[in-house]
Specification:
Blueprint: E1 2-5, E2 8-11, E3 15-18, E4 21-25, E5 36-39, H1 42-50, H2 57-73, H3 80-95, H4 102-114, H5 121-151, E6 159-162, H6 178-186, E7 192-196, H7 203-215, E8 219-222, H8 227-232, E9 238-241, E10 245-247, E11 252-255, H9 258-267, E12 272-275, E13 281-282, H10 299-302, E14 303-306, E15 309-312, E16 325-328, E17 335-338, E18 341-343, H11 349-353
Helix pairs in contact: 1-2, 1-3, 2-3, 2-4, 2-5, 3-4, 4-5, 5-6
Length: 354
């Protein structure tokens, strides 16, 4: 992605590996401050996922792959059995960083599979980093292809609703839900984006809006409760969201509030698309009822935060509930925008076979 710093456009990825350190755009600081966080150990990298320094299923996947590679590189010793014991411990810790995004587990398992059967620790270390790099590059490639396929769904003059952030910040680069919008914009199509604020962490208002502003794509931030108003007025032509996990039957786990947007879209005859790479589909999970839903700190709901810090906005004596995700049943999804094309629910078997 291009970020304007000191009057100059510079290219950044959301996550990359450099001299043993995992580098991350520190997303909780955006849009008020742009800063790169250095994670010098695999535990620091895993904790950065938990604290949402990095978020979004593909970005979490790439970061967890690098965390697993870091664990391999930071092992001291030559005994291969001790090395594998260390990797089992590290991988269990990394997998617990966030439970809903299936890309995390997939990436860790890919790195572990790559080092299986190595004869030396040095060989394991080399293969672990190579696999982590390949995971990162793969996400960039599939996001570009998602953009090409999804961009065909957008006509010039369309107004698109997004929820949460599924742009470059949620991937390694380019994005999932924002990739078709970027593709349409690059082709010269006139596209306008309604970005839901996405309470409680406001990833739409902070991150999606920031990305759109950097790309000079026309947009407006709207309150989460305003989407239905604009749908009923006929001002929204289609919805595109990302996903953190998609079950075998097509049910979609995504940021809390996605389900209600899908229901509203169905009521107003508006196409509702989910953009996600193949890695986000979990064919071992039969339906959305089996997807674990992370519940986060209630302070994310009771407090608002921004440049000036956190301020309590709820009654001082009232508790809060804070599910981070909800599940949208497949019947509300018009199609799934993947690197293989736009698939209907009854076509998802193609992904399973791959």
């Amino acid at each position: 992605m291009k970020v304007r710093i000191d009057g100059k456009d510079k290219d950044f990825r959301t996550v990359w590996f450099e001299d043993g350190v995992v580098k991350l755009i520190n997303q909780p600081l955006l849009p008020f401050k742009f800063e790169i966080m250095d994670c010098g150990s695999w535990r620091e990298t895993a904790d950065a996922i938990t604290t949402m320094v990095v978020r979004g299923a593909p970005a979490i996947g790439a970061t967890s792959g690098y965390a697993t590679a870091q664990a391999a590189l930071q092992f001291s010793g030559e005994n291969i059995d001790d090395f594998y014991t260390h990797m089992r411990t590290a991988s269990e810790y990394i997998k617990k960083a966030r439970p809903t995004a299936v890309d995390l587990e997939h990436a860790v398992d890919r790195v572990l599979e790559a080092i299986k059967g190595c004869e030396t620790v040095d060989d394991c270390k080399e293969k672990a980093l190579k696999e982590a790099d390949e995971i990162s590059e793969h996400y960039i490639d599939v996001c570009k292809r998602i953009g090409l396929h999804g961009g065909k769904l957008i006509s010039s003059g369309n107004k698109v609703l997004t929820h949460c952030n599924a742009g470059a910040l949620a991937t390694v680069d380019y994005g999932t839900a924002l990739a078709p919008i970027r593709s349409a914009h690059i082709l010269g199509k006139k596209v306008f984006v309604f970005a839901d604020e996405t309470r409680p962490r406001c990833q739409g208002a902070r991150l999606t809006a920031w990305e759109l502003a950097e790309e000079k794509i026309p947009h407006a931030v709207i309150a989460d409760n305003a989407a239905g108003f604009y749908m009923r007025k006929g001002e929204i032509d289609l919805c595109i969201v990302g996903a953190d996990r998609i079950a075998a039957n097509g049910d979609v786990a995504n940021k809390i509030g996605t389900y209600e947007k899908a229901v509203l879209a169905k009521e107003n005859n508006i196409p509702f698309y989910v953009a996600a790479p193949k890695a986000t589909f979990d064919f071992n999970c039969p339906s959305g009822d089996k997807i674990p839903i992370e519940e986060r700190d209630e302070k994310e709901v009771t407090h608002m935060w921004g440049k000036g810090g956190k301020i309590r906005i709820a009654s001082p004596t009232s508790p809060a509930r804070n599910p981070a995700f909800d599940v949208t049943p497949a019947k509300y999804v018009t199609g799934y925008i993947t690197e293989l094309g736009v698939l209907k629910q009854d076509e998802l078997e193609k992904l399973r076979q791959l």
